[in-house]
Amino acid sequence: MNARDAGAGSAPPRDPLSRLEELARALRCLPGVGPKAAQRMALHLLQHDRDGAQRLAQALVDATRTVRHCERCNTFTEATLCALCQSNKRDATQLCVVETPADLLMVEQTQAYSGLYFVLMGRLSPLDGIGPKEIRLERLLQRASDGVVREVILATNFTNEGEATAHYLGELLAARELRVTRLARGVPVGGELEYVDAGTLAQALRERRNMGSEP
Amino acid sequence: MNARDAGAGSAPPRDPLSRLEELARALRCLPGVGPKAAQRMALHLLQHDRDGAQRLAQALVDATRTVRHCERCNTFTEATLCALCQSNKRDATQLCVVETPADLLMVEQTQAYSGLYFVLMGRLSPLDGIGPKEIRLERLLQRASDGVVREVILATNFTNEGEATAHYLGELLAARELRVTRLARGVPVGGELEYVDAGTLAQALRERRNMGSEP
């Protein structure tokens, strides 16, 4: 039996499931989604949630069209300046430097910080050819030298690359009469010494704090 | 500083990151994607792969518009009949019954089957209100009674619901002078007895096979 006998209509004969395969392939642009998960997602959407698939398509188009970088702090926004940079409720004397917008959101979730941010959109990584120019550190230096910022809090990751970035930035910024601080390292809240890695514990020992009033 | 001073242009002030949040919310229609993973995916797409996001949007639109069910076997296709049902290279005397298109693809991957398929698009699940009508078993009975099919291979899952579905179908089909078979149960290829669960091992004992020539 061929396509014509089967009444397949005017559509040219195609590979079986080809649009489905295209969808599965396209889903692999998502981080952490391999071929098996992509196929499962594609089948799930077609079988159970075509409305969700349409909404997702629209959200992807809307976001890629409208989301850009804040001209002041570099995070994602739809306006020229992000809502945080526009707010007059934030303490403009503090500037927290993070690697990514996700890190910014994490710091905001703590509700323990009311200053402004600068998002590097990366980190120094000489092995990958990412130097000070690639993450445009001169923009951060300019931002930190606006005369209002008094303290720069370096909140890059505690990975090798994040630490190197913080070290490099620390030296550059300290030369400009700014207070430069780094997030504290140590045992996590709720952490049990037995299960904390030795490196973290060593750091917590070295940077131990006085209890009660300072001597 | 308010939005106008900041030169935010004519766009009305919006929630921070709102299109981004909409995208993250929309990504949660994907199976196995929680709020944290959805946010990570949204940020990744905007930061590193806007082209991929556009392609994904297009693939979603294309697939939801064009993919429908094969009129004969119920699997996903873009034509009236799927490529397998259209093929004249398949053995039309064998009909393999599976729960989902993903199961069909798995059986095809074995390259050990050259017959046709019928996809239930579900399983009997009385507790969820899914009975013989909901998965339209009468369509399968009609399909299996075309006079060409000689053997129906029940390849539903070996879960409680899949087994119940196979049992129910087996009784219905056996009354129609069809050979009805079920996939073999037993120790998986490469399986070590020490790590096989007791239920599987018991089944493999009960359904043990003669080695060499039958007596």
Describe this structure in words.
The structure is a homodimer of 215-residue chains. Chain A is of the alpha/beta class and 215 residues long. In chain A, 40% of the residues lie in helices and 12% in strands. The first copy, chain A, contains 8 helices and 6 strands; from the N terminus they run H-H-H-E-E-H-E-H-E-H-E-H-E-H. In chain A, the strands form 2 sheets. Chain A has a 4-stranded parallel β-sheet with strand order 4-3-5-6. In chain A, helix 7 (160-174) links the parallel strand 5 (151-154) and strand 6. In chain A, helix 1 (18-27) crosses helix 2 (35-48) and helix 2 packs across helix 3 (50-66). The interface between A and B is large, with 71 and 71 residues.
Describe the structure concisely.
Helices cover 40% and strands 12% of the residues of chain A. Chain A is of the alpha/beta class.
